[in-house]
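Support reply, case 0932

Customer input (verbatim):
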Amino acid sequence: MILTRRDFLKLGGVAVVSLSLAEYATANAVKIPVLMYHDISHEMHETETISPPLFASQMEWLYGAGYRALSFRELGSLDAEHARRAVVITFDDGYSSFMDHAFPLIADYGFKVTINIIGSAVGGFVSGKDPRLSWDECRFLTKSGMVEIGCHTYGLHSWYGRLPRSTAVTAFNEKLKQDLSVFQGLYRKEMGRSANILAWPYGMHDRKSIEIATHAGFSFMLNSERGYFGKGSDQYDIPRLLINNDTSLSPFRELIERRS
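Our regenerated output:
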């Protein structure tokens, strides 16, 4: 029998978790890292891109260190012991590279992941490159039980990014209700239910945006502000940690372990 490195990690993972939880049994306020990824590629077209080898090393380290990647729904039931070894993994924009470079790893490690798709881009390309996940792929991923498909608006992502920052949020809110209505209608048609996770384009929003999104049926809203999710945090304004190709393994470990 040939034992791969990943097999070894999986066999030893339970012991690692048991030791870690005992070590932090008296933890009080625990903050959970919510990681934000985008594309996984050898070609760095965007600053948010991460290479396949670096992404794989990060996932391997998380698993080997006894961390569990959970869904947003699971966060509410965590006690301090289990929260100490919990992370949340999110992907924005719905790049199809997830199928090749992320899904095999997260399925093997039992990690839960949220992918926030741009409704108008599903099954297509952006700027003539960068293919996006199709609805068939979204359904396949959801059926695996490992992936939740969230919303990154229907068509406001590219439009919003071109607005002057001084008037951006006001103009965004004027279109947001209709945009989320279109997204939810399409999502229900393709996925059989409504989406309940929303990631704000470029992270910009205000209390009015949150109110509109709440009425549209969203229960978790993700921003792009650097920070951690802890007890008493607002589930309608969840901070995240951007992870890209500049986040080598050592800084990645520090982000996960610091939690402040």
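We compared this against your earlier run and they match. Two observations from our side: The radius of gyration is 18 Å. Residues 11-28 have pLDDT under 50 and may be disordered. Please reopen the case if you see a mismatch on your end.
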